[in-house]
From TrEMBL:
It holds the Pfam family NmrA. Residues 20-132 form the NmrA-like domain. This is NAD-dependent epimerase/dehydratase family protein. InterPro entries: Ergot_Alk_Oxidoreductase (IPR051604), NAD(P)-bd_dom_sf (IPR036291), NmrA-like (IPR008030).
Length: 138
């Protein structure tokens, strides 16, 4: 996409060709799954990653490394608004407990409100008549 450089030196409407990167919020990026996803995204020139954790000390650590990082607790919907501000895409990962329903719904609803255009939810699926608990739940 073509954009305009916002700096005052370029104010004379000099067109600059630069890529407008999509901002991706990755839930669970301290975990096994999320850390691999973040690693892949960090090597992708088309996206910028926003890290999040429910542990403030981890958020502080990322921020001190110059990363875009925010506090987000899936059990605290009031933390979603700031975490989602300016986000284009969202990766949702939850633990496998009954809480996942509320966590996924509230975060998805907040993402829609925030104008997020693409959501990937970490899940599983099987044939419709599968009776194994993990799959039937989904
Ligand atoms: N829900 C589904 O549809 C589904 C489908 C497949 C797998 N899973 C589950 O997905 C998980 C992925 O496995 P994994 O090996 O990557 O897990 P893991 O290494 O235990 O990592 C879990 C991640 O979730 C984050 N997290 C947990 N509770 C949170 C909360 N309340 N708010 C914000 N972040 C929270 C943790 O972040 P911090 O500790 O840094 O906050 C951590 O980064 C497993 O629990 C698996 O059962 C779920």
């Amino acid at each position: 996409m073509l954009g305009y450089c916002p700096c005052i030196m370029c104010f004379e409407s000099k067109k600059v060709s630069r890529i407008m990167k999509a901002k991706v919020l990755v839930v669970g990026c301290t975990g096994q799954t999320g850390s691999l996803i973040v690693e892949q995204l960090e090597n992708n020139n088309l996206v910028d990653v926003r890290y999040c954790s429910r542990r403030q000390e981890q958020v502080n650590r990322w921020q001190s490394e110059g990363k875009d990082a925010v506090y987000l607790d899936l059990n605290e919907p009031r933390t979603f608004g700031i975490a989602l501000a300016g986000i284009d895409r969202l990766f949702i990962l939850t633990g496998y407990t009954v809480d996942m329903l509320l966590q996924s719904k509230t975060l998805t609803d907040a993402a829609v409100k925030a104008g997020v255009s693409h959501i990937v939810h970490w899940g599983i699926f099987a044939n419709w008549d599968c009776t194994e608990g993990h799959f039937a739940w989904h």
